[in-house]
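User: Run a structure prediction on this.
Assistant: Running it now.
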Amino acid sequence: MARYQLLIEYVGTDFRGWQIQKKGSTIQGLIQEKLTKLLKEKIILNGSGRTDTGVHAIEQSGHFDSKNEIIDLTKFLKSINHFLNDKGVAIKKIRKRSNKFHSRFSAKQRIYKYIIFNQISAPVIEKKRGWHVRKQLDLDLIKKGAKKLVGTHDYSTFRSSSCHAKSPIKTIKSVKIKSSKNRIEIEFKSQSFLQQQVRSMVGCLKYLGEKKWDLKKFNKVFKSKRRILCAPPAPPEGLFLMRVIY
């Protein structure tokens, strides 16, 4: 058996997330179907992790095993993209890997970015590529709140009720914030995240930036470990899986 890694870009707007569902189109399901037809054998595609409905990816990582070696990877890349590109999905790279490689369990860090358009008018060209927030946000307050999220903590406050992770304790290596004109980008780096963790943290940072909360309230909500106290999660269209580091 030969093992191959895929680096995948997709617009998540019309999909019910990464993972195959009983109903609705998913990224995993679509790519797996096209790989099976192209390679003429049953293919199982494993991803580095799930992304929710509407979430995008710049470079999701996945792997699959094939009974037959793919001789011309460039030709194969062109063929598979022929069936995927009009769906808003692209395979950016394919590379042969050892059987010890696993797209999920071999990952050392995952990087997510959340984009906010902080302006009165709704974005048109970048519609559904970020969260449109009309009220002026205090960037300094958001940066102060973001610093409190870094490190090893119990992130139960930001954990979805349907999350199946064994532990709510995670380690966020860094939170970086960049701002240009009316565009705010918040980048999170961690080995792994809880379900809806990033969107929930962004929702709370937005409350802080709007001054609905002060830093004391933000910290109190974080330390409470109570999901019910969390601000509404940021919408999925602003979230991008940027890269998986191995």
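Strands lie at 2-10, 46-47, 56-66, 89-97, 109-118, 131-133, 151-154, 169-180, 183-190, 239-245.
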